[in-house]
Amino acid sequence: MRFRIDALLAVLLAGPALADGPTSTPAVTRSFDLAALDRAVDPCSDFFEFACGSWRKSNPIPGDRSRWGRFDALAEANLNVLHEILEKAADPEAKRSPVDVQVGDYYAACMDEAAAEKKGAAPLGDLFARIEAVKTRADLTGVVAELHSYLIPAMFSFYPSPSLKDSSLTVANVDQGGIGLPDRDDYFKTDPKAVERREKYVEHVGKMFQLLGGEPEDAAAHAKTVMAIETELARGYLDRVARRDPKNRDNMLARAALLELAPSFDLARYFEAIKAPAFTDVNVANLGFYKSVNLDQFPLADWKTYLRWRVLRAAAPGLSSAFVDESFRFGEAYLRGTKELEARWKRCVRRVDGELGEALGRLFVEKTFGEEGRARMAQMVAALNKSMDKNVRGLAWMTDATKTRALEKLAAFGTSKVGAPEKYRDYSSVVVSRDDFVGNVRRANAFEARRQLVKIGQPVDRTEWRMSPPTVNAYYSPPNTEIVFPAGILQPPFFDRTIDDPVNFGGIGAVIGHEYSHGFDDQGRKFDATGALKDWWTEEDAKAFEERAACFVDEYGSFVAVKDPKTGEEVKLNGRLTLGENTADNGGVRIAYGALKEALGAKTPAPKDGFTWDQRFFIGYAQVWCQNVTDDESRLRAQTDTHSPGRYRVNGVLGNMPEFQQAFSCPAGQPMVREKACRVW
């Protein structure tokens, strides 16, 4: 998780203008759901279907989603809470705090469908005019800097992040950026689906230019220009697997050396135009991008067309329905298989969370999260830390020298962040108007871009959060050597204050263990206890790790993400792309299981709901990942997502665990008993 100025707007507001309707209230989510089980399935044959089969039959994918799981159901429940908060905050007649006014008016401006329809693309007129006025390369660079100052991605990216060599210091980074298809390989693969995806993208870009009032022939020509430029940019990209290795992103150069490396980018002018703080050294996260991409091969007229597209693409979800519809048609319907568009209120809630996240999150935490939950989470984190410590000490394949360094790193994790920040971000300088949604977005993004840029050259703020409090997720930060759990995830099915320990350890316990394991996966292991990119492994132990990691690469690389019903073509997972998450999943469940056994001590809880304590642990874990996914979404995720699908987060993990096989009396030879089990941690 790191800020990038080339990142898309925090949450896409995709979909047509719709009249607001009543909030749909999801069914109560249970941490242990007997009704979700499909008892006709042998748990030793397919535990995912055993734990989730009935749930999957009863929970088809909603029309406005391309994936629907219990994870998503919790996010939907949080969305409803945020909706209630914002509806009250948006009432100008109510007694409102300054935070209420800001988030409420932001939401109200987004919900003003009539204003969006009336304005069309007019709110983009000032940026289009500045692009049209470009006469020189210096002018072009200035416009790119202005777009970046609004978080509109174009051409390349520039952002701050902790130094890979000294995690206490924030340094400037330049990086690849500026493409529109989901992955760099989309521009070069020759299989029929990749060819079709490029054709659909060019068609989409052309339609968007037509909506600006262009003639069909001109719009089609503009689309081809955009594709030509993005293809050249993509040519310099590192692929996703290569980017996972932090060593490939560690290229500190003197500022003067960077300017010599990339003369066509006019970076000196760019740094001045974006008002970057003074710096003498910069990390070039992809040297190949700046070495291989020559911007001079395209005339200024082509670059102006490309920049108009970047502005339009970023803003389209907040414009009139014609733009929203077309943005949805390609980005969601075609790429992901989503059948219909989210209600406007959902899209607007997501925008407020994305752009004023800690302001809205503050209200969410006040309404939903208590100190009791924070205290119980702290106890579980301590239990998982102790289990991880025991796990490391007991590893037969690791020498004492490396174990000592690993335990030092584990001790450095200290206290995790739980719930919400101690001090919330102050957005009071962001001007919000009830009749200017596009302007609100631009001003909020300008605030965030500036907030990030001023970090360059400053000490890293270790109190900062990278997710808003309502987020249903968690993360490990390599430079901070910490794990973070927003309030949004600390609810069923992950965490239930009323449920027995085996289920909670299988849910949030496995999540905690997962994040700890990230500190020691194929990426995390390359950072030391201080958060610096430093090799602390003996050669012998590094080799032993790689051998065990290769087992996961082979195992998950054999799993089929989606099979074309017409051609029989199988799209398999990328075992190297998903290696870190798979290592964390496998390590996390094992560590959580060990922590549960430690917590139970000599006690053997009586069976409950017809299942033993260890069976409840494994069912609790599996039911977190119950989900249905469209084929298009599965295909896209197999190419771009570092996480495996829910089915393999269950079966892939538990098939490697003798403890699971013992709990369900699975004999050798069953699908859930992997002959050559994989294990790192």
Assembly of the depicted chains = single chain
Summarize the main sheet. Answer: 4 strands, mixed
Task: Return the CATH class of the domain at 153-299.
Answer: Mainly Alpha
Mean pLDDT, rounded to whole units?
Answer: 94
Q: Which regions are unreliable across 5 or more consecutive residues at pLDDT < 50? A: 1-26
Q: Do you know the CATH topology of the domain at 153-299?
A: Neutral endopeptidase, domain 2
Short description:
This protein has 681 residues and is an alpha+beta fold.
Structure notes:
By secondary structure, the chain is of the alpha+beta class. It has a domain at about 155-300: Neutral endopeptidase, domain 2 (Orthogonal Bundle), CATH 1.10.1380. Helix content is about 50%, strand content about 5%. It has helices spanning about 45-60, 70-90, 100-110, 115-120, 125-130, 135-150, 190-210, 215-235, 240-245, 255-260, 265-275, 285-290, 300-315, 320-335, 345-355, 355-370, 370-395, 400-410, 435-455, 500-520, 540-555, 580-600, 615-625, 630-640, 645-655, 660-665; strands at about 65-70, 155-160, 170-175, 250-255, 280-285, 415-420, 475, 480-485, 560-565, 570, 625-630. The strands form four sheets. It has a four-stranded mixed beta sheet. Strands 6-8-7 form a three-stranded mixed beta sheet, covered by helices on one side. A two-stranded antiparallel sheet has the order 1-11. A hairpin with a 4-residue loop joins strand 7 and strand 8. Helix 2 crosses helix 3 and helix 8 crosses helix 13 (about 300-315). The longest helix is centred in the middle third of the chain and has 23 residues, at about 370-395. The chain is globular and about 75 Å long. The two termini are about 25 Å apart. Mean pLDDT is about 95; it is low at about 1-25.
